[in-house]
Design brief:
The chain has eight helices and eight strands; from the N terminus they run ααββββββααααααββ. By secondary structure, it is mainly α. InterPro entries: Palmitoyltrfase_DHHC (IPR001594), PFA4/ZDH16/20/ERF2-like (IPR039859), Thiosulphate_STrfase_CS (IPR001307). It is found in: Membrane.
Amino acid sequence: MGLRLHFVVDPMGWFCISMVLFVWLYNSFFIPQLVLLPHFQEGHIPGAVVVLYYLASLLCVTALFRASTADPGRLPQNPHIPHSEREQWELCNKCNLMRPKRSHHCSRCGHCVRKMDHHCPWINNCVGEDNHWLFLQLCFYTQVLSLFTLAMDFCQYYYFPSLTQTDTEQFVWRHELALLRVSTFMGLFMFGGMGSLFYTQIAGILTDTTTIEKMSHFLEEINQPRRPWHQTFAEVFGTRWKILWLLPFRRRQALHGSQLLPATLETARPRNEIRTGYGTHTLRWFEGL
């Protein structure tokens, strides 16, 4: 697909992403081997449950790999600035390079990132304009996989019948601690942590503000008129097709102008326009409203 890999040299980030990979490996290999496959072989669960679990695991690790290796929107050394947008660019006081407004300099990565949300050590990468959609997918699929794992742990202890082809005493003494305690603890930790992070990210998209902007003292300057939720999400994910918002295997295409507007409004003639730092937002007044 012509994708370029982006790696950040940060030992702390490598440690954090290794912890995330360990949790994923544990849930993707131990849970199927100890719960899903044995109970599937004895007819306690349908094959669709096994397929869905592996699908959730695949989507989770794909979003993790893409979010950690995708370019978040790093600005080049000598960016080309269109003449009509020069007023929307400013000089970075750290790297002395021109950058668009709402960009931010990441001290850990050492460069400016377009519409940077924050630097996430758990993916060892910045979350910016070009990989924000992958970070959202990672938060979502991590919650799905964690919730799936918690459900399997609960069913193993309270719902599933005993396995006839497994030594029950040997199974309990060897695997109960790892399965019901470690797996449950990791599932609760990941589901709770990613759930709160996912909520803050969704709230930021709906209000068109980044995490850095929320923490700054210039919210009144950067706040923009509230747009419909499907337009803000389409801008982040790079497509108006909502089904594609869930797929981490594709390539994002930046949307601008009329691409963000519904087809029914694209043909309407505007009567007034407002220019902001990120394009032209059109206000339309129709007769009879």
